[in-house]
Design a protein that fits this description.
With 504 residues, the protein is of the alpha/beta class. The chain has a domain of 297 residues: Alkaline Phosphatase, subunit A. 28% of the residues lie in helices and 12% in strands. Strands 1, 5, 6, 7, 8, 9, 10, 11 and 12 form a nine-stranded mixed beta sheet that branches. Helix 1 packs across helix 7, helix 4 crosses helix 10 and helix 9 runs parallel beside helix 10. It starts with a helix and ends in a 32-residue tail after the last helix.
Length: 504
């Protein structure tokens, strides 16, 4: 099909309209092959702990040689192995004096969750939290930026590349009008990109607003026509025009389902309806309009509920049933080089993660009652459809870096524990905790690797999202790249080994 000068100009206008309309969108695919079987509406929520979470104090030893070394290496950061060993929580009415035991590990020592993580411990006791010990990758890198990139691409040796979950999205069979992923934040997360699939990224729903005043419907129809014409261009000859057009069409098809400007339920998007206040106004910090475990609140300066706020938006998108199934949320502050527990800093971060993730799990694990007139929502128990997966670019050093209790911190290291939460999960500990008396070869403070992160990702992809193992890889052209050369500790990656936290 030939493209006339008029069509090219209109396509260029469509490009500009696309940029103005959806600065946090990416392209939409044409055709693909969907993965068959399993829960076709399976949901994954990634929770990223930015800065490198201290896994050694997140899941810590209570007994044995591991405990002895832990106390020796961290004299002022040591957490208690008997009830009553940690100070009360600054008048918060929170019991941080109990030992939250998770039982005996493969290494023979008993372990516990950090005392601030009581809410997640309750879910663990119900059998719906998998604790994966020593998750990392060969050839470890101690840079935040490079290690984050490695976690996103699942490739320790190649700089750049596609996010491994973006590779999955490209092959998952979504229609051009679908927007299957949402990132709560200022920009798209590289875990999902670059991908041919359209995604939404926003801090607040009001960022998803058609940029026009007066005769909005007429202007929206005109922009839609531009995108329709661009999308109709020959994809072989004009791939970018086609992709811009498809992106714009997807945006215009979905944007009003998320947010509409104005007040009141008569003029609100389907997602927005679940987050209105008593005056019919949407605000970023609004609770959900129904009784939800995510609606809790506490002292803002100590516990600002950033993660819970973002997970409320995730819950609203899921229950609004607008087609998104894959989500990314994040919380920063874990780069604890100094003053790690001054004012219980790291403890409060872990408390926020624990309370917010547990509340989200409990939110999905209930039937909700909506206000009169609300229709088209998923009100039933959705816990069987939802998987929550944590990630952080690396753990922290075995030893604290100062003796002063108010200034002591931990530095960049390698492996750390990660969590997978949900009703589909077979709870418990997986793998041996890396030994504190046998550090990695390149750094005396690095924990060795127990699980290659690609086995974690691959288990989610194959056992939850139904990706055939041959499509998974590892290898060229597959979702997960290989690392055929062994590092100084003998770690390589040439074959996928599933982990049992999701049943086969």
């Amino acid at each position: 099909m030939a493209v006339t000068r008029r069509q090219f100009i209109q396509g260029s206008a469509a490009s500009l309209a696309g940029l103005a309309l959806a600065p946090h969108l990416r392209r939409v695919p044409g055709t693909s092959v969907a993965y068959a079987g399993g829960p076709g509406d399976a949901i994954v929520v990634f929770v990223q702990l930015f800065g490198g979470n201290d896994g050694i104090n997140t899941v810590y030893p209570l007994t044995g040689t591991q405990r002895t070394l832990y106390e020796d290496y961290r004299p002022t950061l040591t957490l208690p192995n008997t009830t009553g060993g940690l100070s009360p929580w600054l008048g918060e009415g929170f019991d941080a004096q109990s030992v939250l035991s998770i039982g005996t590990n493969d290494d023979g020592s008993n372990y516990a969750l950090h005392p601030a993580m009581g809410a997640l411990h309750q879910v663990y006791q119900q059998g719906h939290v998998a604790i994966l010990h020593g998750v990392h990758y060969p050839f470890p890198n101690h840079s935040h930026f490079r290690s984050e990139e490695i976690w996103y691409t699942a490739d320790p040796l190649t700089v750049g590349g596609q996010g491994w979950f973006g590779s999955f999205l490209d092959d998952a069979g979504f229609a051009p009008t679908d927007i299957p992923g949402v990132v709560l934040g200022g920009s798209l997360n590289p875990l999902f990109t670059p991908s041919n699939v359209s995604l939404f990224s926003f801090r607040r729903l009001s960022e998803l607003e058609f940029p026009a005043e007066g005769e909005t419907a007429l202007k929206q129809a005109a922009v839609r026509a531009l995108h329709d014409e661009s999308a109709a261009a020959s994809a072989a000859l004009y791939p970018e025009l086609t992709k811009i057009g498809l992106t714009g069409v997807a945006t215009l098809d979905k944007i009003n389902e998320y947010y509409l400007p104005g007040d009141g339920t008569a003029n609100a998007g389907q997602v927005e309806l679940l987050m209105l206040d008593g005056n019919g106004r949407y605000r970023r910090d609004n609770p959900l309009v129904y009784d939800s475990p995510l609606n809790f609140s506490t002292t803002p300066d100590l516990f600002p509920l950033r993660l819970a706020r973002d997970l409320r938006h995730v819950a609203a998108v899921i229950r609004a049933d607008v087609g998104a199934r894959f989500f990314h949320v994040g919380i920063g502050g874990f780069d604890s080089h100094s003053s790690q527990e001054r004012g219980f800093f790291h403890s409060y971060l872990l408390r926020e993660v624990s309370e917010a993730v547990a509340a989200f799990y409990n939110e999905m694990n209930q039937t909700v009652s909506l206000p009169p007139g609300y229709t088209g929502f998923q009100t039933g128990n959705l816990a069987s459809k939802v998987l929550i997966v944590t990630l952080s670019e690396f753990g922290r050093t075995m030893r604290q870096n100062a003796t002063n209790a108010s200034s002591a911190g931990t530095d960049h290291a390698t492996s750390a524990c990660q969590f997978v939460v949900g009703n589909p999960v077979i709870g418990g500990q997986y793998g041996a905790h890396p030994p504190l008396n046998n550090p990695g070869s390149e750094n005396e403070d690095d924990l060795r690797l127990t699980h290659d992160f690609r086995d974690v990702f691959g288990t989610v992809l194959t056992r939850w999202l139904n990706v055939p193992v041959p499509d998974l890889g590892p290898g060229p052209g597959k979702i997960l790249p290989a690392t055929p050369v062994a590092d100084a500790d003998g770690n390589d990656y040439t074959a996928f080994t599933p982990i049992g936290f999701i049943p086969a």
